[in-house]
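TA notes, week 10

Several of you asked for a full example with nothing omitted. So below is the full record: structure tokens for the whole chain, then the designed sequence directly under it. When grading your own attempts, check the secondary structure regions first.
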């Protein structure tokens, strides 16, 4: 397993390569406009604006302070998992321009999913009550309580969510990537990052293959 700083450097290289390989129409706002509209005063928004001008070599931010991590834990009423705090110790937020999930939020901005997505959470809760199913995963039944780690999606309904009640060994909360009605589950935040890195590399290879024809 790569150290977190090495993993984030690999993520940075892969995200920039994916961005450069994307079709021209994807470069209009790089999927960053919803984040910029919602959090215009964030330091990550300043980085996003530089992305739109092409003036970026590092898609991350300075590390989060211990005080800001403790403040987020107190605000949310949970202990953040070790690998997520390792990520924050390297970069307090991260951009993946042109990707479906284009922003990983600074720790100051993470919040319960239902705060800004109450309709999605309510729709799922109502549907599960109607179906009276006991087999649906916790995340869908209590979607509003999940902690949203990613910013507003550029299109569709794509999010990175932390399950505050489902723990894996090593005090790692389950991390889920959510696409409308589909989910992919990860045993830790670092496992999510490794999956995201693989996805970026595969997408870039596909895009580059298309341009070579």
């Amino acid at each position: 397993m790569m150290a977190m700083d090495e993993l984030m450097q690999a993520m940075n290289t892969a995200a920039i390569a994916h961005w450069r390989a994307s079709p021209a129409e994807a470069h209009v706002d790089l999927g960053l406009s919803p984040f910029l509209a919602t959090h215009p005063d964030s330091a990550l928004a300043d980085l996003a604006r530089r992305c739109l001008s092409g003036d970026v070599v590092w898609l991350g931010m300075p590390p989060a302070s211990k005080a800001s991590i403790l403040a987020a834990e107190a605000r949310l009423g949970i202990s953040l998992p070790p690998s997520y705090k390792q990520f924050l110790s390297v970069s307090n937020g991260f951009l993946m321009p042109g990707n479906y999930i284009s922003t990983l939020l600074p720790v100051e901005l993470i919040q319960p999913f239902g705060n800004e997505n109450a309709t999605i959470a309510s729709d799922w809760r109502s549907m599960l009550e109607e179906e009276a199913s006991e087999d649906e995963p916790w995340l869908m039944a209590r979607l509003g309580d999940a902690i949203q780690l990613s910013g507003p999606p550029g299109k569709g309904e794509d999010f990175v969510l932390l399950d505050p009640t489902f723990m894996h060994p090593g005090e790692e909360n389950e991390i889920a990537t959510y696409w409308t009605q589909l989910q992919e589950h990860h045993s830790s935040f670092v496992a999510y990052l490794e999956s995201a890195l693989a996805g970026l590399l595969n997408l870039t290879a596909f895009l580059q293959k298309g341009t070579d024809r």
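Residues 4-211 form a domain with the SMI1/KNR4-like fold (CATH 3.40.1580.10). Use that as a sanity check on your answer.
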